[in-house]
Each structure stands twice: as structure tokens, then as C-alpha cells.
Amino acid sequence: MSALISLRKRAQGEKPLAGAKVVGCTHITAQTAVLIETLVALGAQCRWTACNIYSTQNEVAAALAESGVSVFAWKGESEDDFWWCIDRCVNVEGWQANMILDDGGDLTHWVYKKYPSVFKKVRGIVEESVTGVHRLYQLSKAGKLCVPAMNVNDSVTKQKFDNLYCCRESILDGLKRTTDVMFGGKQVVVCGYGEVGKGCCSALKALGAIVCVTEIDPICALQALALIELYNAPEGRYKQDVYLLPKKMDEYVASLHLPNFDAHLTELSDEQAKYMGLNKNGPFKPNYYRYDRCSKTTHHDFDYVQYTHFYCNVV
Ligand SMILES: NC(=O)c1ccc[n+]([C@@H]2O[C@H](COP(=O)([O-])OP(=O)(O)OC[C@H]3O[C@@H](n4cnc5c(N)ncnc54)[C@H](O)[C@@H]3O)[C@@H](O)[C@H]2O)c1
């Protein structure tokens, strides 16, 4: 939030968003209210809706509405309410969005489905979530992405602050409030060992829980060669340049190490693979996935391997 406030101070004189009409779909909390206020201070007009039926802070939504921002959200919406709110946000006479800020892809999906003509005026989509980014890459691959989109999810600051650090804190807050139990000695399964999973494991371990992890990607499960690839590569595949090990081979090598850790790698189901747009045999991560973001936690990860039951996609 402090970064947003300082951006506001630095740029509000210039109004870099003058004329922008932003339709947004995010969690509606005090933190996102600061984002919306900042967009307004930088010159944008905003209409907002919630990306999650549970997370809206009603008092924040009310305060935003009072300040003149059109907000359609409340805590505890039904599924129907959720889509109604998104629709009200987009479908308004005399006002047409020219930017989309989305967290999860539902707003973007709705505009594509119901109001494709809106895209004639939209200059771009900013997407914050893993799921939404995944959908955007699918659209792009199918040649259906009609405006530029910015993948914010995979920026380092988002990955670290939101996914790793924030989830490391909110997992405990959320679980404590809802279950009110002691975590020491409890057995917890964490599904997926990406940034969010790493943060959650770290917090749960610190409370003394016995943590099991499920993973489908042998590299993430192991966290941890190229000679064979280079030696056997057909002429012309590699020029005089520096290359990364092909992802598939990287994953294969990692998978060979897994038995040493008593880890059991099983396959994605057909349904899961289809949903994620992946081949069941990998590669499991797109090229832009930042494995290097995990390098600082490698020793940590080996601690998990030693002290944590590590399963890969237990079925
Ligand atoms: N504030 C929040 O609540 C918040 C913040 C950020 C992300 N998220 C959500 O958390 C989730 C994870 O985000 P991330 O940044 O860690 O993503 P990530 O892609 O870095 O990690 C997800 C991991 O899950 C693994 N995986 C996928 N399918 C699996 C399966 N069937 N079984 C076991 N493992 C599987 C993948 O291989 C990957 O390593 C996403 O759904 C994201 O939208 C929530």
C-alpha cells in the first residue's frame, strides 16, 4: 500500500490516467480501496465489482460508493449475485470501459461472452491471478485475444508479496478464525507447491503442524542434463548461443530424483490436464514461469523434504 501512496504522490499532478475508464473485478478490501483511490487520483474513472463472493468488506464497499465510485459487491453474494454484479459493472448506459483490471478472469470472460463490442474501445486488460493469466494465454493461443493484456501475476513483486508473503500470513489468520483449533500436531495437506503453497507450508510448519504436499511437477516437488540433449540434437536445433535446458528434460531429470525422497509422482487425470491446458506428461510450466524465484528458498525446501511427508499428486 505504501508503494501505491507514493505513486499517487508522485504522479497525481500529471494525471497519467486522465480519460481512462477502468472496469475492475478484484477483492474489495481496504487494500484494493487504496488501489482504486489511487487510480482515481491519477485521473481514471472506475466501476468496480468483487472477484470473490466471500471477501468483500462491506464497510469498504460503502465508503467507496460514498466517494463516488460505482461498486457492486457485498459479503456473502450468491453465484447469481456475483454475475449480476459483474453485469451491472459493465452494462451501463452512457459509460463504456476502455481498460479492464481483472483478478481471476471472470470479468474478462463475461465481457467476451456478453459484450464483445466493448473490446472495440478497450485498450488493454491487466490480469492479476494465476487462473486469469492462464485463461488469457489460452485465448491468445486460440487467436481470440483481441486486445493487449498484461500478466501482472508473474511479476516478482506480485509473486513475492501477494502469493508468498501474504498467503503465508493469511493462511493462519483464515484457518484460526474459522476453526479455532490448535495447529501443533495436526496433519495438513497443502495442494500445490508453488509460491502460495510454499508460504502456506512455511507458516503451518512454524505452528508445529505435520504438513503433506501434493504436486504434479517434479521440479517443484524436488525443487531442486544437458549433455545428452546437446550431443543428440539434430543439426540446426542449437546455434552459437546460450540455452536453457528444455523444460521437459529438466522435469524428467527431477522426476528421476524423486524416489530418493520417497516421493510418489502420479499423473494428472484427463479432466485436470484438460482444465489446466497441459499435457499429462509435461512440460508442466509455461516458459515464463520463474523457477529462479524459488532459488532463495532451496535450503528451506530440503528441510521440508527431510521433515515433511512429500507426496506428488497423491490419488
Ligand atoms: N490471496 C490469495 O488468496 C491468493 C493469492 C495468490 C494466488 N492465489 C491462488 O493460489 C493458487 C496457487 O497460486 P501460485 O502462485 O502458488 O501458483 P503456482 O502455479 O506457482 O503453483 C501451483 C502449483 O500447483 C501445482 N499443481 C497443479 N495442479 C496440481 C494437482 N492436480 N495436484 C497437485 N499439484 C498441482 C502446479 O504444478 C504448481 O506448482 C492459485 O489458484 C491462485 O489463484 C490465491
UniProtKB/TrEMBL annotation:
<dbReference type="InterPro" id="IPR015878">
    <property type="entry name" value="Ado_hCys_hydrolase_NAD-bd"/>
</dbReference>
<dbReference type="GO" id="GO:0006730">
    <property type="term" value="P:one-carbon metabolic process"/>
</dbReference>
<keyword id="KW-0963">Cytoplasm</keyword>
<dbReference type="InterPro" id="IPR036291">
    <property type="entry name" value="NAD(P)-bd_dom_sf"/>
</dbReference>
<protein>
    <submittedName>
        <fullName>Adenosylhomocysteinase-like 1</fullName>
    </submittedName>
</protein>
<dbReference type="GO" id="GO:0033353">
    <property type="term" value="P:S-adenosylmethionine cycle"/>
</dbReference>
<dbReference type="GO" id="GO:0005829">
    <property type="term" value="C:cytosol"/>
</dbReference>
<comment type="similarity">
    <text>Belongs to the adenosylhomocysteinase family.</text>
</comment>
<dbReference type="Pfam" id="PF00670">
    <property type="entry name" value="AdoHcyase_NAD"/>
</dbReference>
<keyword id="KW-0520">NAD</keyword>
<dbReference type="InterPro" id="IPR042172">
    <property type="entry name" value="Adenosylhomocyst_ase-like_sf"/>
</dbReference>
<dbReference type="InterPro" id="IPR000043">
    <property type="entry name" value="Adenosylhomocysteinase-like"/>
</dbReference>
<feature type="domain" description="S-adenosyl-L-homocysteine hydrolase NAD binding">
    <location>
        <begin position="163"/>
        <end position="273"/>
    </location>
</feature>
<keyword id="KW-0378">Hydrolase</keyword>
<dbReference type="InterPro" id="IPR020082">
    <property type="entry name" value="S-Ado-L-homoCys_hydrolase_CS"/>
</dbReference>
<dbReference type="GO" id="GO:0016787">
    <property type="term" value="F:hydrolase activity"/>
</dbReference>
<dbReference type="Pfam" id="PF05221">
    <property type="entry name" value="AdoHcyase"/>
</dbReference>
<keyword id="KW-0554">One-carbon metabolism</keyword>
